[in-house]
Amino acid sequence: MQALLGLSLAELTDVARAIGQPAFVGKQLAHWLYVKHAADFDAMTSLSLKARQALARDYTVGLMPPEHCQRSVDGTVKYLFPTESGHFVESVYIPTPERATLCVSSQVGCKMGCKFCMTGRQGFTAHCTATDILNQICALPERDTLTNIVFMGQGEPMDNLDAVMRATEVLTADWGFAWSPRRITVSTVGTPKGLLRFLDESDCNLAVSLHHPIPEQRAALMPAERAISITDLIGVLRGYDFCRKERAQREGAKQRRLSFEYIVFKGVNDSIRHADALLRLLEGIECRVNLIRFHDIPDSPLYGVDDKAMVHFRDYLTPHGLFTTIRASRGQDIYAACGLLNTKVQNATQP
């Protein structure tokens, strides 16, 4: 049976008509799904009994609770969610005193094959549907505390853009969650077709997985470099407007933010030479660079750097005009930190 979670207002209106109900029932369905977060049709008390029975006969709500969770000593929680295709994905809930962020997955596994990522080692299994993506949010026990969503879990969001765009439409539409797009960040390693569509059709923030400023050396870490060079990707981004909160408030500009993710590897991308190359690459773009600690993965020739090296790299970039921060590492003890999500074992052992 078809799940209603993930359908647009127009599609829910079609569902209402299909069960012999007036069009306004579609709006009621959207309210119950995306505002009230009803878990079943019986909870939708503003609908007639006949409508609820017809819905239960032909549709499902689409909510699937997590199968498992792991809690870190730092408060991070990693959840294992089932998907409509019978697989599993991991999501990470990251609370801080200022905000509560959920890192959601867009694919079961990933095609991109980045050398530093456990999901990439898992390989690609299936795309998440919009139902799968929104279920990670709506079925989250801490759902009502969320302030931000980042598409930085398993998978390449631009490789499954139809489902990602459906999910972000629900999150930002006035008939859906009614969130500001600036509460949502979508990441990419750089897939040309998907990136262009996202830039043209979405107001959500963009995060680019950069990790090396020199194309040939980036290709050794990230096979996606061969699809579009980082220099060409930056050229595309120069044609779009991005700004930080301060300029948006001052000028009334669209507050879509651009950031670059940069995992720092010892002896690979951590020298002043690399910092200068990064400055040249991003010159003139209003953006933020997030430095990320590398978490060792088995059988990898890559190693992270110590805190002193991270600070040195940041303190070189920022005075040269490139706003740079060091991302706090969360959930490492439960393998929930950047690059560690992997459901290969769970997929193999679940009944």
Counting DSSP H or I runs of 4 or more residues, the number of helices is 13
Largest sheet: 10 strands, mixed
Look at the helices and sheets and give the structural class: alpha/beta
Architecture of the largest domain, according to CATH? Alpha-Beta Barrel
Distance between the termini: 21 Å
| Named CATH topology of the largest domain | TIM Barrel
Full CATH superfamily name of the largest domain? Aldolase class I
Please give the number of β-strands.
14
User: Proportion of β residues?
Assistant: 15-25%
| Widest sheet: strand ordering | 3-4-5-6-9-10-11-12-13-14
Shape: elongated
Could you estimate the helical fraction of the residues in percent?
25-40%
Would you identify the regions where 5 or more consecutive residues have pLDDT less than 50? none
Q: What's the mean pLDDT score?
A: 94
Count of discrete domains: 2
Instruction: Provide the CATH top-level class of the largest domain.
Output: Alpha Beta
Give the radius of gyration.
21 Å
Query: What are the secondary-structure elements, in order, as H or E?
Result: EHHHEEEEEEHEHEHEHEHHHEHEHEH
Q: Describe it for me?
A:
By secondary structure, the chain is α/β, with parallel strands linked by helices. The chain has two domains: 2-60, DNA polymerase, domain 1, CATH 1.10.150.530; 68-349, Aldolase class I (TIM Barrel). Helix content is 33%, strand content 18%. α1 packs across α2 (24-34) and α5 (130-138) crosses α6. The longest helix has 12 residues, at 161-172.
Give a short overview.
The chain has 351 residues and is α/β, with parallel strands linked by helices. 33% of the residues lie in helices and 18% in strands.
